[in-house]
Amino acid sequence: FLQWSQSVLLVIRGRGKIRYITREVQQPDVNVPAYENWELNNSIVMAWLINSMELHISRTYSFLRTSKAIWNTVNKNYSDLENASQVFEIKNKLKDLRQGSMDITEYYNEL
């Protein structure tokens, strides 16, 4: 999840649409002329998010109505799981790590 989220953030930020998932761009009222532009850009970001996921994962999120809702829900569902699995993996690696023939710089980088 962490790698996916960082990659997606890079793309969205690079395309100037990061405010659609940080909610700095609020959804205007449907009757306001700005709504059409918001809907267009929100749909673009939604498509980037959905298309960057594996199909069996994206099905769960494709019916949400805003890019912000997709982003928040994915984060809620995966970030804690990812953190727990990363902690477990790091603890296992540290348990087995030995300096051996590595110089101090290599060993430090492994840590």
From TrEMBL:
Species of provenance: Cephalotus follicularis
Name recorded for this polypeptide: UBN2_3 domain-containing protein
Show the Pfam families listed in the entry.
Retrotran_gag_2 (PF14223)
